[in-house]
Specification:
Blueprint (H helix, E strand, L loop, with lengths): L5 E4 L2 E4 L10 H5 L2 E3 L2 E6 L4 E5 L1 H14 L8 H15 L5 E9 L13 E9 L10 E5 L20 H13 L4 E5 L6 E4 L3 E6 L2 E4 L10 H13 L3 E4 L4 H5 L3 E6 L3 E8 L2 E2 L7 H14 L10 E3 L1
Parallel strand pairs: 8-9, 8-15, 12-13
Antiparallel strand pairs: 1-2, 1-7, 3-6, 4-5, 4-6, 5-17, 6-7, 9-10, 11-12, 11-14, 14-15, 15-16
The protein binds 4'-deoxy-4'-aminopyridoxal-5'-phosphate (PMP).
Length: about 300
Amino acid sequence: MEKPKFAFFEGKIIPISEAKVDIRTSSLQYGTAVFEGIRSYWNAETEKNYVFRMEDHYKRLYDSARILMIKIKYPIEELCDITLELLKKEGYTEDSYIRPFAYNSGLKIGPKLTGTEQDLFIYTIPMGDYLDTTKAIKVCTSSWSRLSDNSIPPRAKVSGAYVNSAIQKTEALLNGFDEAIVLTSDGQHVSEGSAMNVFAVKNNTLITPPVYSDILEGITRDTVIKIAQDELNIKVIERPVDRTEMYTADELFFCGTGAQVSAIGSVDNRIIGNGSMGQLTGKIQSLYFKIVKNEINKYSSWCTEV
Ligand code: PMP
C-alpha cells in the first residue's frame, strides 16, 4: 500500500491523491508560504508513535505566519488534533515526518501578502535519517550566503527561502560533501547548515550562533541546549562564531528535526577532532534519540502519543 494515503486539505482529511492546488496559486508562484517539519518516532518496544514537540512546532508556524501576514484559521490545539488524526489514519509503524503548510491560496497575479485567500494543508510521510547519524559527515563552507532578516527573514520558515537552502545543499553534494555550513550575508560569521543548526564543542563547552546570526531558531537546537545543561552539566554559549573557529573546534555537530543530531568529521577538508563522532556529540545524540522515543520520563511532556 502506498504511503501516505491522506492529507488534510481545504478543511478536511481526504485521499492525498485528491489534494491538488491550482497552477495559478499565489504561493506556488511567489514562495509566499510558511511551513513546519515535525517528526514522529516509532517506539518498537511500546509499539507506539510519538510526535516530538508538536505544540512548539505549531507555535513557530504561528510566528512564521505572523511575519508573512498569513492568517491561520485553526488554533494550535486543533492543528495538533488534526495531525494526530492524520497519523492515526496512516497507522505508521515507523518514524514519520509531518509537513503543515500555510499558504496564499489565491490565484491573482502579483507578489503580495495581503488581499489574497489563505489556507493550510498538512500531510505526513514515512522518514528515516535525513543525514547519516551513524558516522561523522563531511562538510564545506558554502560559497552561498545565508539570507538576512531584512531580505527574507530566516526566523520565519518561509517556503521561498528554501531556494537559499537548496542552492547550498546542491553545491555541497556536487562538490563531494554531505552538507554545507553557511555564513551570514556579510560573510563574517557562521549562521547554520542548509536546513539545520550547528554546534561546536570547545574545552567541554557548547558554542552555537545566536538568534541574531540569521538562523532559524531551531526546536532541536533548544532541545540540545536543555539536554547539555540539565543532563550533562555542560555550559552552553550563544555567540557569533567565526568560520575558522569551526576548524579548531574539538567537536562539531548539526541538529534539526530532519538532521536529528549528526556529527561533523571535517569542514573544508580540515579534520575535526579525530574525524569521527566526538564523545560529547555521542552523548547528546544518544540522549536525544531516547527522549524523542519517550524513553525518558522527565521529557514525556514533549512526546504526544498518536
Ligand atoms: N535551520 C533551518 C534553515 C531549517 O530548515 C531547520 C529545520 N526546520 C533548522 C534550522 C532546524 O530547526 P528544527 O530543529 O526546529 O527542525
